[in-house]
């Protein structure tokens, strides 16, 4: 600490003032009413006011700079331009803006870009319905949403704005496709796909709901064989799974998302087995073996059936002979993916491969064979073994009636259980494991069998023994692994998407379009072309489809499928780093400098597909020259992932019918007791996902217009943790509104006594992050503080001059800086930030004016408060900062080295608050500002409990008995145990006294109760008035003994 100039004669009494009134009444009064400042009324105008200044002054977020600089890449998932900003948008972009502003104030080179996920079916459907070109509709929506987003006070790098429908962008999407194609990672294949007959396009499995309907059109999805384009994401399945462990470290990605990705990739270790399929009868015909994959070979003894997929060769062959089976296969195309319908294949049976190798007559030697929609073509070989006793899906299928060529058939044979949860010794007569249990036993356990070599083996032991027995007999049984992940189908039969840059030539085959000919642009079709159009317009446009082969120059056909829009979003984070580059996706040096994204923010609904595809493409690019240093971070594109919860709105429904009620059907004159219009019936009130059909949407633009961007942002963040569902309740917004208005009033320097016209010797320090004791030294130099004669070190002498409330304010400021910084940078608990800032605001507001020191401390706390508020409420923080500094800087305006010299009230604003950096917590000062001591509390000389209290200030002399008692009681009341002890209704002190009459000097204790304070509150003894004189003297003597070293040793 700087040496104090202690030779000065001491601080003159420049401000010999009485304490100012509390802040609830400190504003000027006129006619008995508080006259509020205008600051309380203009919260809605501050963001647009300062937006103009920030843009002109360019004092906002700097762009990503040289490689050596420490960067922070903050990226929200870019929006689809639907044309309307909703509260879900507002939440994700508020979070990203807050984090970007915080990082900028910390001194990082921040990249916070925005763009538009502009391709996709909605635009094309709108074009079909309205006869408008999809491009025009999309660009109109982008313009509308840009204006809405600018109202929310966000600060994005609009110079890097991109639109995926812009040829300058999708040229590089096509270039990425060609890179994959050249590496053998893009291919065409015939595939049975989900076909939407209304939109006439292919759907991914995830776009088909549980009822088998399209996620967008609602049409019943059909199955159709088409030649499709795929990307070999399975080539990357090992690192996609393994590297999830790196993302899990330190909670960088939410556990829920990691679990969803792990499940989707779906690696499992199991066993490949073979079942012979043959016809029934005395001379069966072998139809060949069917391979199945199972993770539970220990349940083979309990197999009850074999199920084949709809397109399995055996099924297709039989369908030619049996019309009933043909009819079932037609119907099955409309079954939901998880349907448990089935059809027994006529005249077929499967042989359990282990039945003739073990001595167990309970094993079903032959099994019925079914075709079942739930069996996937590409799982194993399109066949599964059914074990109803130990698989939930198989259990449901087995219990459900099946169809056959002779009609419906039920299997009444009991479910067979061969795995028991506990090891047990069974005789041969007890090994029958049939049961009528209503649910399968899913967990591993111990095999039950009549064959003594297998009975009692654990599941893992049984798997090994069964494999061994089958292999000894020369039958297929091998350990293997299976992956649920399938190659990525990217073909879409629509116009409004990125064209696939290949040409089909009869002589040359599939030919990539030369890079020099990119982009392959969408044809500019007239708007009338889309009116009522179904299917793919590109397939109907000969000017687009007909072309020449790039190799042989003969007539050829251009690919008319377009790419899945997830292809655009799989790499867009790279493009933001180099958005003007005409020849490359991104310059390698910029990819190395900018990637990975430091914080990625978006909804959990993208936890699987978008994030998985983005990880795949990033890992691919890390193997190329595009991202040379990508391998250092395992090719992972997003370092930290935040998945914000959904926003739910207040929803009203008719309690008798469940029908959602429109606003005009409600009488909300009493918001706390709404009724259905024209009745006395109260509607059912709930919070549900906002949607037009539920009439519970909230227009964020209207909310911002009414309350202001800062109030709306802060309310949204305060109402719920980032990852939780936010139940939007506008009634609660007034609390945030009052808080920000109070912050504005603080900026008027209202904590200076009202009748002081000038600020005396107040001189803000040069370093706004000055440590606490350097601040005190600075104040001593300007004779605001006169160091105490008590204490040894300079720090102690300075501390001993402070009032306890002043030390509490300084301490609260430092601890708030620490907690808020951690929340911004580590936990992202933005709701607790607002709570902490509200608490600090109240502490500043309520700290009483004790001396000339108090305004300095309040100024010091307020400048830190405003900088911590700035990321959340930039308009309020900027307005408050400009007002506060222009009022409190007169003494430094002539100092050319002082950072606050440029502020002049009523003139051009000074530098933005965002240029002053982030406050730094002086945590070393906190324990010194809060010196703690142990205090033992006794009752009638018997120890009751021990408290941690603040040490008694040196300003309270040991001879000041009443002041020590007052101090001890105040400290006790700050603790839960102390409050319980002194509680007038149930506390032991009052119960023992037998009276409700309070003492005249200390109303916290009963009349007649004696209170003895020993060794500056190391011990406090309460002595009951009921004790005889001799008994009173004894505990008093014991209390006096506390001064002895032997007692001191026991106080810890």
Automatic annotation (TrEMBL):
Q: Where in the cell is it found?
A: Mitochondrion matrix
PROSITE patterns, alphabetized = AA_TRNA_LIGASE_I
Catalysed reactions listed for this entry: tRNA(Leu) + L-leucine + ATP = L-leucyl-tRNA(Leu) + AMP + diphosphate
Task: List, for all copies, the residue spans of the domain called Methionyl/Valyl/Leucyl/Isoleucyl-tRNA synthetase anticodon-binding.
Answer: 809-950
Q: Which CDD domains match?
A: LeuRS_core (cd00812)
**Annotated spans, Disordered:** 1028-1052
Give GO BP annotations, semicolon-separated.
leucyl-tRNA aminoacylation; mitochondrial translation
Domain Methionyl/Leucyl tRNA synthetase: where?
77-210
Q: Name one GO molecular function term.
A: ATP binding
- Name the protein family: Belongs to the class-I aminoacyl-tRNA synthetase family.
Protein name as catalogued: leucine--tRNA ligase
Q: Which organism is it from?
A: Paraphaeosphaeria sporulosa
